[in-house]
Amino acid sequence: MANLRSLVLTGLVGTAAADSYNCPGSGSLVHAWMEVTTTASTSCVNVKAEIEARASAEGGWKDPHNGGVYSVLDSSGSVIKTQRTTNPATSVGGQVYTDKQNFELTDQDGSCQIKVCSESQGTSVGDFSTNYCDIRNLYCGSADGCTTVNNDFASKEDSFSKSIGAGHDFSGCIVKVAELDAVASDSYNCPGSGSLVHAWMEVTATAAATCANVKAEITARASAVGGWKDPHNGGIYSVLDSSASVIKTQRTTNPATSVGGQVYTDKQNFELTASGWLLSNQSLQPESGNFRGRLLDKLLRHPQSVLRIG
Question: Which pTM value belongs to this model?
Answer without folding.
Answer: 0.58
